[in-house]
Amino acid sequence: MAKKFLVWLDILGFVRLAREIATESHLTERKVRSDFANVIRQRVDAMETKGEIIGKNYGDRDDWILVTASSDSVFKIISEILTHNTGYDRHEKIPLEIAIGTGEYDKWARFDGSELIAEDSTLEFLKTDIIGFYHTWHGSQCGESPKSTFVILTESAYRELAPLDRRQCKKIEHNRDDETISFFVVDVDSVQQRGKLFEFLEKINRPSSKLYDRIDDMYVRPLEYRTIERALRTKRLVFITGTREYGKTYTAVRLLWDFFLRGYEPVWIEGGEVFERLIGRRRLEEIEKELRPHQIVYFEDPFGKKRYERRESLERGIGTIVDCVHNTEDVYVIVTSREEIFKQFEEEHLSSVVISKFEKKLNVKRPSYDYARRKRMLLKWAESKDCKWLGDRSLRNAVLKQMRHNKLPTPLSIRDFAIATAAISEKDVLLKKIEEKSKETARSFAEEIEDMTDDKILFLSFPFVSDFPVELVRKGYVRLVKALAMKESWDFERMVGWFREDKISIDAGRVKFSHASYSEALDHLLVQKGRLTRINRHILSRVLLRLSENNTTAWALAIFVIDNFGRLPQKVRDLLFRLSENNATSRTLAYVVADNFGKLPREVANHLLLELSGKDANAGFVAWTVVDNYDSMPKKVRDLLFRLSENNTTAWAVACVVADNFGKLPREVANHLLLELSGKDATAEDVAWAVVGNYDRLPKKVKDELLLRLWQHPRARVIVDSDWAAPRRYPYLIGPW
Question: What is the pTM of this model?
Answer without folding.
Answer: 0.84
